[in-house]
Design goal:
Order of helices and strands: EEEEEEE
Distance between the termini: 11 Å
Number of helices: 0
Helix content: under 10%
Oligomer: single chain
Strand content: 35-45%
Shape: elongated
Structural class: mainly beta
Radius of gyration: 15 Å
Largest sheet: 3 strands, antiparallel
Amino acid sequence: AYNFIHRWNAQAKRDKRHDTMIFPSFLPTDADILVQVISAKDLKKADIGGLSDPYVIVEVEEGDQKLVERRGCQRTRIRMCTLDPDWNQSFYYHRVFPNKPLKINLLVWDWDN
């Protein structure tokens, strides 16, 4: 499932090599939360061949409200045939109510399962 939410008037281009959305004019602000998804080790085998095709969905909640990633993409690239993926991707979320509790969920999924 691909959830791309467009909040900017900038033209988005699809990068088919990494299956992400690229927005040309994005500048983070002081009110943004930076979530960096770096890597994972020893993931469960999800494919018949004993490997996995992992990606991460990033969910950020402020109180009971889900926040939308500032550039429109809320998941990492898919890393094919690995149990030790490296993503090195950053996600920015704008806090509306900085005094509310913050919850960050990182959900690791297999692409073809």
